[in-house]
From TrEMBL, chain A:
The protein, known as: tRNA (adenine(58)-N(1))-methyltransferase non-catalytic subunit TRM6
Main location: nucleus
Keyword Transferase: yes
GO cellular component: nucleus; tRNA (m1A) methyltransferase complex
Keywords noted in UniProt: Methyltransferase, Nucleus, Transferase, tRNA processing
GO biological process, one term: tRNA methylation
TrEMBL record, chain B:
The name this protein goes by in its record: tRNA (adenine(58)-N(1))-methyltransferase catalytic subunit TRM61
GO MF, one annotated term: tRNA (adenine(58)-N1)-methyltransferase activity
Keywords for the protein's UniProt record, in alphabetical order: Methyltransferase, Nucleus, S-adenosyl-L-methionine, Transferase, tRNA processing
Alphabetized InterPro entries for the sequence: SAM-dependent_MTases_sf, TRM61_C, tRNA_MeTrfase_Gcd14
Amino acid sequence: MHPYVRPNQFLAFKLPSEQTRIQKIVPNTEIFLGKYGSFPANQIIGRPFYLTYEIHETPGDANSKYLRIVTAAELHAESLITDGENDGDDLELNEDGTPVRTNRETVDDRSTQKLTLEEIEALKKESSGAGRAIIAKLLESHQALDQKTAFSLAKYKLRKERKYMKRFTVMPLDVSLLTNYMLEDREAAKTLELRDELIGLIGCWGNVHHGGSSSFEETIAARPNGRYLVVDDTGGLVVAAMAERMGMLYPHDGDDEEEQDAAEPEVPEGEERNEEEEPITNAAGRVHRRQMSAQGNTITLLHANKQPNLNLLKYFGYEQDNISETHPLYTNLKTVSFLQLLDPNADTIYAQEPPVVPDAELATYKSSKRSSYHRKRGRWMRTRRVVDEARTGGFDGLIIASMMDPGSILKHAIPLLSGSAPVVIYSPTVEPLTEVTDLYSTARKNAWMTRRRELEEQAEQESEDPEEISRKVTAQLVEEFYVDPTTLLSPTLQTSRVRVWQVLPGRTHPLMSGRGGAEGYIFHGIRVIPRAVNIEAAGDPARKRRRLAKQPEFETPTETPAASGDVEMTS
Amino acid sequence: MPSPFLTPGSHSSLDQLALLHLRRDHAIPTVLCLHDEDNAGYKEGKVTTTRFGSFPHSTLTDQPWGSQIGASKVDTGSRRGRGPQKKNHKLKRKAEELDSATTTTPGDGDAPQAAVAASSGFLHLVYPTPELWTTSLPHRTQVVYTPDYSYILHRLRARPGTTIIEAGAGSGSFTHASVRAVFNGYPSDPSASNNTKKRRLGKVCSFEFHEQRAAKVRQEITEHGLDGLVEVTHRDVYRDGFLLQQPKTGPSPKANAIFLDLPAPWLALKHLVRHPADGSESPLDPSSPVYLCTFSPCLEQVQRTISTLRQMSWLSISMVEVNHHRIEVRRERTGLEYERIRGAVVFPKDVDEAVVRMRQVEDHSRKYRELMLKMDDDETTPIPPSLAKKTGPEDKDLAASDIPTYKQGRLVHRSEQDLKTHTSYLVFAVLPRDWTEEDERKCREKWAPHQVDVVSNEKPKGKRQLKREKKQAEEQQEGQKEETADAAAENA
C-alpha cells in the first residue's frame, strides 16, 4: 500500500496533457516537469498520493514557489455545476425543439482568437495563477465563444487547460501504472505490448499469490508453497507483476504502515555482504539474508542469455547491478539460464568450483583478495544450489511471456511442474498460441495414447527390461509428437480488452480513439500427471450409440471424456 | 486447517475441498471424506458418481494433486433396494443429473470396502482455484467471472496484506478471488505473533443482505478453510454501513479497497467516507488511499454512481467495460481427399484441384456420351465396369494418410460460439488520505520546502560509494572472520 511519498522512491506524475512522467524523488532537489514548470522535491515528500497540485510562484523569485492542493470539488467543478443545473440533459433547445446553438455558423480558422502568439508568451511569463489567468484571457478574447455549443466549449476549454495549466497529480508507481506507461509513453515493443487487463488475467489464471508464511507450512506439509517458474522477455514487467501479487515487490512490503512520525526503519545491522552460504545467526539472533535463499513464495526466472534482463525492476528499488539486500526480491528471486537448466556442466560458473583455501592460508591474504575469494565461493555455491533446486522441479506454476517459441519452453518446463500447477503463456500475437493449443489437442492426445500402446507392444517383444522399454517408447513418442499432450489439461486460449468510457453529464460515450497494435492473447492449461497405464475413457454409452448409429463409418480410436470432441480442443 | 485454495500442499487430504475435473468448464467440487453421515448406500464409503464412472473417495484421498484417477466398479443400483442392476442402466439418466455429485455414503459402523478398478473411465483430481471454483460453484446470483474480477482486483491494488470490503457476496466467486489476492498468512500462524513487527494480514470483509445467501457463503468459507481470512456479515449496507459486527459501534474493517456489486451503489457511498456524518468510525483505512470499484450492468446506474462519487470527493474516476472472449483452435480440413472423414469439408482445396476435378468430370461425361452413342448402335452392350465405377479418390487417400490426422489441414482460430458481449460497467475511483493543515506543517518542518542542493552528477558518486561500502564490508569481515570460517568448515 502507498501511505505517503517516501524519499528516494520512484513515482509518477500525471500531467495535464494526460502524459505520465516517472521520476525518482530525491530530497533537496528540484523536479522539472517540462513546460509545466518545476518545484522542490521536498514539497511532495511525506505527502499522500493521488493529490493534484498547482505550481504557484511570484515571477522572478525562486524561493516563492509553493504547491497548492487542488481540491476534489475544484477538479469536478464543471461536471458538478452541470449536474446541478439540469440533470444531465444540457442541450438548450428552441421552442421548435432544435438546439439553440449548433456548429452551423462556426468559422473554422484562427482569426477568432484575438490574442497573438507573442501576447500569449508574455502572459505565460507574467501570470501567476498556475495558468488559470491565461485560460481566462484566452476565453475572454475568443470572438466566437458565444457561438460554440456546450460540447465544443467544453472541449476548447479542456484543450487550453491541457496546454497551460501548471497542474500535476502524484501517483504511486505500481505495476498497473508502469504497464500503461510502457504502452502509451514508451516503447511498447519492449514489454511485448502487454496490456494491463492481460496482466490481471495472467496473474489469476497463473494462480499467482502469496505462499503463506513458511514456518506454518513446514508443520503442514514438507513442501513449501508458492514457487513459480517464469520466462520473462518483457524486461521484468511480468516478474514485477508476479512479485506484486506475491507481496514482495515493494521494498517496504511487510514492514507495514508505520506512520512517518515514527522513527525511520533502521537499516538492519550486520547485513554486510557475506557471500558464504548457510545462514549465520549473529549475537542479536538476526538471521543473515542470503541472496536467492528463500524457500517458499519465490520466483525462479529462466533466461535465454547469460544475464536476465530485469531492467524495469529498478523502478521498484531492485537495481540489477547492485541489489539492495533489504529488498524482498534479493532472497526470493532466483535466476537460472536455460543452459544451466538443461546442461549445467556446460556452464562455467556451475561446473568449476573455486578451490577451497584453508583458513590458515586465508588469514594471510590481503583483505581485498580474501573478499574476492569469498565472493567467488559464494557465487558458486549459490549457483549450485539454485540450479539444482530448479532441476528438481516441483514448481507451483509456470508463466511465460517470451519471444521464443512457447512449445520449446513447455517441452522442458512442464516436467518441472507439480501436478495441478497452472501454465500460462502470454503472446502479443495469436499464432504461436494456436500452435501450442494444437500441440495439446484432443486428436493428438488420442493419437499419443494409441501410438504408445503400439510402441509398448512392439518394444516388449524386443526387450524385457521395463526401463529400457519405457526409455525407447518415450524417445520414439517425443520424436513424433514433440511434447507429451497428455500432461496438460484443458488448454484454453483467450483474449480480453477493456474499453474506456467518458462519463460526463449529458456527454457519455466510449472514448473515440485508443491504442491499436498487438491484441494480446493468453494460453492457459493445468499440469496433470497421467497414469503410467492407459485408461480407456468412458463416455455416456447412450450418446455414443446414437452417434455411431448416425455415422457408422466413423470410429475414434479411443473414446475421450469430451465424447463429441474430435477436432475441438477440449478435454 | 490450511485452505486448499491457498496452500494446497502436494497431496489431496481428507476433509478438504477437491475438484474432480471432468472436462473444460466442468469440474465437480467435493469435500473428501471416507465416511459420511448424510446418506446410506455404497459399500465403498462416500462415492461421487459422474458420467465417466463412479469414484469412491478412498481412491481420491492422499493422491498427488493433478493425478489421473481411474473409475471404480461401484454397485450403484442395489443400495436403493431395487435389486442388483447393471451400471449401464443408471447411465441412461441425463448426464447433467448424474454429474450433480450424487454423493451418498454408508450408515453406521461398516468399514468401507476397498474399491475395485473399473475397466474404463477417469477424471483428473485438481486442487481448487478461484477460477475453477467460479465455473463450478452453485449459482445463487449472477457471478462475477474471471475476466472481470482479474481486472478489478488488479485495479483495486488488492495485494497481500490488503483489507478489502465486498458488498454483495452473491455466489462467492469474487470472495474467493479476492481472498487469494490479499492472503499473506493465516491469522493463527504462530510465527506472525512471534514476529516483533506487527504485520498486517490480508482480509476480506464480505457483506450480504440476503440472509440465506450470507449463511451459505459462511458455510462455504468454513468448508474451504478460509475462516479468519473472510468475515461474512449479514447486513443491509445501504442502511447500516460497513462496520463489522455491530452497525454503528462495531470495529472498523480499515479497508484499503472496496468492491460494490449492488443495484444502487450510490446509496452505500455515504458510509464510505473519512468522517461519517453520524459520528461513527470510518470503515476506511486512515493511513492509505482507498480504491473503489462498482459493478453495474446499466449506464444509468453508472451515471448516478459517478455523480455521487464526484460530490463525495473521489478522484481519478474512470469507467470501463471488459470485452473478453475465448478462442477456439481447430484444424480445418478442406479438400477432395477428405471424403468420408468426419468434420472435414469436401471441396476443392485450391483452383488446381478444382480444375483437375472438372477435367475428370468432363472426361468422364465425354466418355459417357461416346458410350451412349455406341449403345445406340449396339443396344446389348452393358456399361463397362471401369466407367461405372466412380473416379474415386483412392490415389489421393494414400497421399492424405501419410500425414497423421492430428496434423492434417490448416490450423485456424475463431471466437467461441457463445460470446458474453456485455457483463457490467466497471467504475473505478480513488479516495486519497486525509491531509490536514497540521500534517502539512509537520511535513514542512521535516522537509525544508525550499531547500534545493546543488547535486553533482550521480554516477561518479555511486561508484565512490560502492568502493567505500566494499571497504567497510572488508573491515567488518575481518572482525567476523572466525565466525565465517567456522560456518564454512561446517558447510564443507
